[in-house]
Amino acid sequence: MIVAQELELKECIGQGACGSVWKGLLRGTQVAVKQLKTKYENADQFKGEVAIMTQLRHPNVILFMGACVDPPYIVTEYLEGGDLQDCIKRHRQMVDKKETVPIKDMIQISLDIAKGMAWLHQFKPKAIIHKDLKPTNIMLDSNGRAKIIDFGLSEVQKQREMENRQFAGSACWMSPEMLKGVPYTEKLDVFAYGIILWQIFTSSPEVYDVSEYKSTSSQASFNLFIHDIVDNKKRPEIPSQLRISNEPICALIESSWNDDPEVRPSFTKIIDSLTPIFLNSVLKDTDAIQMWKKYFPDKDSVPFDDLFDAIWETTHKRELDKALSKKCLEAALDIKNSPISIDKFGLVLHWYGPLLPIGPTSPMLEKIQTLLRFPWFHPHLSGKEAEAILSDGKSGEYLIRCSLYPTAPFTMSRIESRKNPTPCHHRITYNRTTHKYKMQFQKKKNEAMDEIIGETLEEFVRNAEKALGLKKCVICKKYAHLFVSEEDTTDITSNYKVASEK
């Protein structure tokens, strides 16, 4: 237990039916402090629950650091990302502005919640049922990863019971069996998850139109709501566009909020359903997905050596030099002895994929080696860094760099002319069906757009040199040392006019 004098409350960051939430300090560590409105009715029971809660360790469950009996404080880790409700509101603003919410982010949050809940439901010696799962009880860390909060303490659940019997509380996420007041199982959390999943994928902060239930009294309104959910089986409407674009998610939503608790999937099964969807959203490569599932099931990041070994075994590219392939992959990842996240691997596939050859394409390891040899290739330059390099350049100078744009793995940065010395940038798209690179450009204002195409990036650059009058590349020698050997005397830079070395 924590002594009140050890806590320093700094800033109130939230108010609720149970009390207020503060940002504070505990022994020099930044924490979140929930200050309950009333004291604990059973201090001994509460201390026992606290002892259990402090043992909970899972990346998708809030770290419980302790509690204070008098005054009634609950202390947890502080998360900078706010709650899921605020995140969904931000996504709604993006949608209203015709911006696209990244599907990967939505699936990642959904998977995080499912993993946290699966762990709570499988906790021994007794499963922990949340009973109040909703967006405001899901927090995000600074990296956007979700963590479950407000569970497991009976005193907190007692204090929010009154709030849950009205629309300002948790009614929208309550299962039919809970609304009816009949015995329930852990599947009530799955029902709430189904509603949350719908909110995430429709970017909907609100679940139902509460104005439909205005009546003479709050109890009458609530009874009407119960009738709709329990008897009429009312659920939020799933947009037709979501059914077209992501039917597996729609099926998961509908099974999760099914009226029959037995039909609802367990969180373990939900994880099994979401994992391949998540892998596809990040890797977008069937062979890479199968490799990750085979070698790294349930892993979000892996040591570099393990990743390389898995890629090497999967590609079976024995004609490549293994040591050189490993050094080049390390250069492509741009890491220094740190674990490789699945997101980082997804980026490498975006730039150098596919993992295995499809049609005329080269396998990833071979493509990395090829591109790192070219003097015009500056893979890890940002737009601002490219502009800084080209700022003193002359007309026709250029370089190629990696891009984070979803459909464009690379960007060409160049000086267009003496009259316009400001560097300009062109996205180079890649068509996964035709396996061709393409870039659109305009020779003169008011003229139709023209395009440059190439089956390989090298061919594309050759064609771009002719079409745009490119004269010199800004040479990159950062990776030249990788290819220096007694057997390899080829100087690939001799094929290019170079402006300067960077």
UniProtKB/TrEMBL annotation:
Organism: Arcella intermedia
Function: Required for proper chemotaxis and phagocytosis; proper spatiotemporal control of F-actin levels in chemotaxing cells. Negative regulator of the PI3K (phosphatidylinositol 3 kinase) pathway. Predominantly phosphorylates serines and threonines and tyrosines at a lower level.
Domain SH2 residue range list: 376-453
Gene3D superfamilies per record: Phosphorylase Kinase, domain 1, SH2 domain, Transferase(Phosphotransferase) domain 1
GO molecular function annotation: ATP binding; protein serine/threonine kinase activity; protein tyrosine kinase activity
Protein name from the UniProt record: Protein kinase domain-containing protein
InterPro entries: Kinase-like_dom_sf, Prot_kinase_dom, Ser-Thr/Tyr_kinase_cat_dom, Ser/Thr_kinase_AS, Ser/Thr_Kinases-Pseudokinases, SH2, SH2_dom_sf
SMART domains assigned: S_TKc (SM00220)
Keyword list, A-Z: ATP-binding, Kinase, Nucleotide-binding, SH2 domain, Transferase, Tyrosine-protein kinase
